[in-house]
Amino acid sequence: MMKPAAALLFFAGIGQSAMACQVAGPPPGGWVDEPMSHFRDGGFSQSVQHMIYEGRAPVDLIGGFVGQRLIYDTSCGASEVLLFLDCRTAEAAIVDGLSHEGGDLALFPGSSIDLIQKPQGALDLRVIGSVDELVQISQSNDYPASLDIMRSDIVATSLAYGFEPYMGCKIHYPESVGAQQ
Question: Which range marks the domain in which residue 128 is found?
Fold first, then answer.
C-alpha cells in the first residue's frame, strides 16, 4: 500500500510533467508571430504563437536529389518530416518521421526522421533513384509518405510564412528544373 506522502510525491510528479506540456494562453498583449528567419544554408525558423517551425539546411544527396529535415516543435514535443526533392524533375515527396519512445510525456513522444533512415530504418537516401521509389519503399515499411507535400501541416504552415520548398535545389543544383520553382 502506498503511503500518503509517497502518493502525494508521485502525483505531484505527474502533475509537473503534464503541466510542462500544456500550452499556456496568450501572453499579455496577445500572440506575436515573428517573421521567418532565412539562413544562408537554406534553413529557416518561424515562431507562430506557441509553436516553432524549423527547416534544417537542405542536404545534397547526389544525383540531383536533395533532402531537408522539417520540424514542428511545441512544448509537448517535436515532430519531423523529410522533404525529398528530385531537382531534375521538380518532383517532391514528404515522409513523416516515426514516433520515438522515451519522451517526457508518453502522449507526446515526438517523431524523428532518423528512425526511417539507415541504419535504424529502411531508407537509404543516397541510393534512391526517384521520388516514386522513395514513396514506395516508405509505404511498404509503413512510413506515412505522400507526393502531396501540402498534406503536411509543417509544409503548409511554413509556406504561408515564406518557406521555399525548392531552396535545396537552388543551392545545390541551381541550373535544375527544381531550382526554377
Answer: 34-180
